[in-house]
Each structure stands twice: as C-alpha cells, then as structure tokens.
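Q: I have 65 residues here and want to know how they pack in 3D. Can you give me a structure?
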Amino acid sequence: MDHKESHLRSLLKTLSWRVVGTLTTGIIAYLVTGTVEAAALITGSEFFVKFIVFYLHERVWQKVP
C-alpha cells in the first residue's frame, strides 16, 4: 500500500513530537543549569528550530519510495 501523509498530518505529528521533546529538553536544561531563565531560553529556541527541521524531515521522507 502506498501511503502518503498529508501536510496537515505531518504538521500535527511534528507539533505533538515537539511538545514531548521540548518538555524533555526543558527538564534537562533546568537540571543542568539550575535556573528557570536559562532553561526557558534553551527550551524556547529549541522548540522552533526543531519544529521546522522535523517537519522538513517528514516531508523529505514522503518522497522516498
């Protein structure tokens, strides 16, 4: 079966995975730095960068037979 995911499904999967990943990163950043401010800066920037990278990764894989 040739199953191609829609852009919306890829976006929703990206968002749900980023929430899980960002929470994990936030906890690790806080444990390493000991400050909420540093953890928030790391977590905030990580969320947006990895959101875009993962979405593009998903779309590239749609082109692989």
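Q: Anything worth noting?
A: The CA atoms of residues 26 and 62 lie 30 Å apart. The chain has a mean pLDDT of 88.
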